[in-house]
Amino acid sequence: MLLVLAGCATRPVNPPITEVHPSEGYRLQTMQARKSADNPSEALVILTFSGGGTRAAAFAYGVLEVLRRTEAVAPNGRRARLIDAVDVITGVSGGSFTALAYGLYGDKLFDIYEDSFLKRNVQGELLARSLNPFNWPALGSDRWGRSEMAANLYDEILFHGATFADLEKGSGPFVAVMSTDISTGTRVGFNQSMFDVLCSDLSPVHLARAAAASSAVPLVLSPVTINNYGGTCGFKFPEWLTVAANAESPARPAARAIKRLEEMQSFEDGKARPYIHLVDGGLADNLGMRAVLETLEEMEAVRLHGGKTPLDHIKRIIVVVVNSLSVPATNWDQTERPPGNLEILIKATGVPIDRYSYETVELLRDTIARWDTMRRIRDSPAFDARKDLSLSGLMNAPTARLYAIDVSFPMLKDKDEFAYLNDLPTSFVLPPEAVDRLRAAAGKILLESPDFQRLLKDIGARVVQPAP
Predict the structure, then answer these.
(1) Which residues of 382-414 are buried (b: 16+ CB within 10 A; e: fewer)?
(2) pTM for the model
(3) 180-192 burial, b for 16+ CB within 10 Å, e for fewer?
(4) Quick one: which of 413, 416, 379, 415 has its CA closest to 394?
(5) Nearest CA to 136 among 3, 277, 279?
(6) How far apart (Å, rounded) are the C-alpha atoms in residues 290 and 90?
(7) How far apart (Å, rounded) are the C-alpha atoms in residues 175 and 98?
(8) Are 323 and 259 a contacting pair, CB within 8 Å?
(9) Which residues contact 39 (CB under 8 A, 6 or more apart)?
(10) 241, 57 in Cβ contact below 8 A?
(11) Residues 306, 243: Cα–Cα separation, whole Å
């Protein structure tokens, strides 16, 4: 009887497509085109929500809360909620739940999220299901694992059957949820542009399954498996991306664009790789920032080569990096006895992620400094591209101004509060007090950020924040 039940357990299958339709499906271009038609904007506002379990979900939620109740007042007196200016939200692991839930529910999220997810013992419910004998046959199946069980729970308590087709119908920001291909370490996003490479339709994929893939911590949860039909739908990479990756160009090529192109090409042979196994997105990019950096580098490279990009009309690119990284203190260095194998395994997994997260933010700041330098040289009265041909490419340098707003624990001025938040574990259960303190800290850090204040000054706006 158990063997029969185990054989019946199977995962959802993402369907194939026979032809790519670039103007259809859940992708940034279609969402942006619709939003621009209603309300043209010269700014691109991006929120990146890091991984970190409920700690990350609550910290990201705190940023959304303060953006929702904060208005910017322009010199002409026009008022607008800051949350309505958000164009893109990237989410990884714990941050993916907040990103997807806001993309699905919009303002309704603020009525349900605390009880449905943040202050719920999700971890305990997952454990209870894994210990339930009625689930053992399915858990023992090769085609259904712990992450499928987790996806079912997330669907019941938060997403309620919603798919990416539901996100496409909405009017909110574009949500980019990230996972990691465990075979190659490649970042795999849940958007139709990525699924075009796989020759698959993203629309019927459940949001809960995307969240499960993005938070599938290896060993704790099983990989989420998707089908790859690459090479069967006539997919071709965008011309502007291949231009950016042109290594024969006299200007420095976009190294990240080249690497990303190579990674994507590995999915084009669906016969050789018919299945892709996805795990926690934090292994490839715990901040959800790599896609942002790649886009900026591609934009810079294409423009320096005299080409056009989809972002040429943008004058300001604002990136709010919501990073809930915590590094709890240990007493390992105070004893001769070394830490145990499990402790070492956990630390060995986390240290590279922590280090890379820091480097990612610094790379964004380096890009800001480089664009500012190119702009100053180009605008200098002494600059003459005709006299110095080696600098002629600066005439096409990106014109958009970049802003990086860091919302992370070290930005807290209260050292006791920093110590408290920094010691919170990465899990899917936290005390209600911890959730509330994370939310409050996120809003405080954002509003007090020097980079946020500089942005307001540059656009000539002031902030009006009603009482909570």
Answers:
(1) eeeeeeeeeebbbebbbebbbbbbbbbbebbee
(2) 0.88
(3) bbbeeebbbbbbb
(4) 379
(5) 3
(6) 10
(7) 10
(8) no
(9) none
(10) no
(11) 10
CA distance 302 to 124: 50
Residues 448/452/458/463 CA torsion (nearest 10 deg): -60
Closest Cα partner for 466 from 67, 63, 59, 61?
Answer: 67
Structure tokens at 15: 């369907």
Structural element, H or E, at residue 71: strand 71-73
pLDDT the model gives residue 120: 97
Q: Where are the alpha helices (DSSP H) in 116-163?
A: 122-131, 136-139, 146-154
- The contacts of residue 405 (CB under 8 Å, 6+ apart) are 318, 319, 320, 321, 446, 449, 451, 452, 455
**For residue 317, what are the β-bridge partners?**
44, 402
What is the DSSP secondary structure assignment for residue 247, as one 8-state letter? T
Q: What is the pLDDT of residues 283-305, one digit of tens each?
A: 888 888 888 887 787 777 777 66
Residue 51 CB neighbours (<10 A): 31
Q: Please provide residue 227's backbone torsions phi and psi, each rounded to the nearest 5 degrees.
A: -85, 145
> Measured between alpha carbons, how far is 67 from 380 in angstroms, rounded to an integer?
37
pLDDT digits (tens, 9 = 90+) for 163-186: 999 999 988 899 999 999 999 999
pLDDT of residue 347: 55
Q: Number of helices (H) and strands (E) in the chain: give both, helices first.
A: 19, 11
pLDDT at 1: 53
Can you say whether the dihedral through the CA atoms of 114, 120, 123, 129 is positive or negative?
Answer: negative
User: Is 290 within 8 Å of 284 (Cβ atoms)?
Assistant: yes
> Strands, E, within 244-302: which ranges?
275-280
Q: DSSP strand E in 261-338: where?
A: 275-280, 316-323
Residues of the chain with pLDDT under 50: 4-7, 247, 250-251, 389
Which residues partner with 175 through β-bridges? 89
DSSP 8-63: H-----PPB-SS--TTSSS-HHHHHHHHHHHS--SEEEEEEEPP-HHHHHHHHHHH
- Are the C-beta atoms of residues 461 and 74 closer than 8 Å to each other? yes
Q: Residue 212 is encoded by which pair of tokens? A: 């499960």
Cβ atoms 407, 56 nearer than 8 A:
no
Nearest to 91 by CA among 202, 170, 207, 182: 207
pLDDT at 349: 53
pLDDT of 198: 97
